[in-house]
Amino acid sequence: MRKTSRGCDGVNFRGVYPPAGGRAGVDNGGGGIDSTRGEAVTSRAGREPTKAQQRGCLWILAGGWLVWIVVDLVRLGVLSGYRSPLGAFFDMPSLFFPAIFAVGLAPVAWRKLRRSRLKRAFPGEPWMWERRWDRAGARSMAAAGVLQPLAIAVPLTAVSIAVGLVARFVVGSDLVLLALTPFFLAALGCWAWWAVRLGPVLKFGRPYFRYDVFPFRLGERVEGALEGIEKLEGFERLTLTLRCVSERWTGSGRGRRLQRQTIREETREIGPAGVVRRLVSARDVEHAAGATRIVVPVRFELPDEDLGTKLDGDPARKWELHARAERPGFDFEATFLLPVYPPQQG
């Protein structure tokens, strides 16, 4: 004899009366088992929307948005030719507000999309979801330091030249041109800043820190070798600093700045005796077969604390290896971003 029972979420379940001394496999809650077919039953409350349902919602939203745009075009007389589309843009809330909304959400959407792609590409490796780490090692971040002043110098120079040309040939006022002198000096200062950052890169190149293990685990060691430092040969003292730092953006607008705080730091000094020579690998095409290169072995103990890398956190937390040596002309400096994560469970 069959009966039909209705759960609290309005989903019908088929079952049978339990035999004497037994229970039927019927569950009127969030899910259960249909004892007549031996199949799992899931309530609507526990289901996730399918891709087809998600696409359907997106199409409904897109259709409503298009209707909103058409209403604005008719209301403002764009379709009848009374106004141009460009002139009516800021009076069209159907375009203006979604554009502002899209610009504000674009970075968040990009990070979420990138993280989901990395999760699919590296299942079971959460340290690869924040950043596509190079498993062999890390290159010096000197290039980022060179681009920073360049990003300021180029637009400032372009604006200064354009305004200067307008002041000289359009306005025809030497007084206005003289008033622009501080902007010209600021642009010149940015180019000097760029030259100071570029000099060490041209002299020493971009060193490479080769990992012995990947990733590094808290409670264990940072082990590797500093390579690509041939032009540093003959140094008296190389200072290596392993630090854990937190970074957070504070303020808004022009007052927005990056606040950086050192959480943990350890420094070691290495003399010429700490340099070793190694044969280059067969994959190294920059050196002849059988050639040697100088490297500096690096080893630091990591604390057994909750200080794992969180590049997407607020504040962000990262581990850096900083190398510095005094040399004639430009001093040698290199910073490497390290993958330091908690011990793997299980």
Helix content percent band = 25-40%
Oligomer classification: single chain
Largest sheet: 5 strands, antiparallel
**Which strand-content bin applies to the residues?**
25-35%
Shape: flat
Distance between the termini: 49 Å
Secondary structure category: alpha+beta
| Low-pLDDT runs | 1-45
Helical segment tally? 6
Major β-sheet strand ordering: 5-6-8-12-11
At a glance:
By secondary structure, the chain is of the alpha+beta class. Helix content is 34%, strand content 27%. It is flat.
Commentary on this structure:
By secondary structure, this protein is an alpha+beta fold. It has helices spanning 51-75, 85-88, 93-121, 142-171, 174-179, 181-204, and strands spanning 2-6, 12-16, 31-34, 39-42, 137-139, 208-211, 216-217, 221-227, 238-250, 257-270, 276-279, 292-301, 316-325, 332-338, 340-341. Helix content is 34%, strand content 27%. A five-stranded antiparallel beta sheet has the order 5-6-8-12-11, with no helix packed on it. Strand 1 and strand 2 form a beta hairpin. The longest helix has 30 residues, at 142-171.
Q: Keywords, please?
A:
346 residues
